[in-house]
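Sequence in, structure out. Go.
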Amino acid sequence: MTNPVRNPVRKRNRLPDFDYSTPNAYFLTICTAQRKNLLWDAVGATIGRPHELQLSPAGEIVQAAIAAIPEHYPACVVEHSVIMPNHVHLLLRIRADENGRPMVAPTVSTVVAQMKGVVTKRLGRSIWQKGFHDHIVRTENDFWDIWQYIEANPFRWAEDSLYTP
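Output:
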């Protein structure tokens, strides 16, 4: 009798009992497959991202897809974002209505899947790694720390944990 092959148990990406459609802010990191540098026109050994450096055609499509998120999901606001050579950071907020009640909102996973799908359709191929990383923003200080991280990220590209030359 042979032993069945067991696949390794994958670590869960999301908190098990958290509703990712609740009004809150979420910090998201979405990577390209194999962390390929596809989203900037030129990725070199510069210390920071020069202001004149342009997004690649794929990067421009990603930028348009991010900008369209609130059009598809009115309860969602992209508070801040940055497109790096091989990943994207989003500070996404799911809003409540004027009375503090949750608006009809998709889950964070639905928003990311839709954004990835739009980019894939426009490019004619997928450029994305499976899944994404999320962080639930719990305090105002956390929100502003993430905002500053997103703002500074292009200038510290060579020091980034996702850096690939």
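Check: The mean pLDDT is 85. The domain at 24-42+53-154 is CATH 3.30.70.1290 (Alpha-Beta Plaits).
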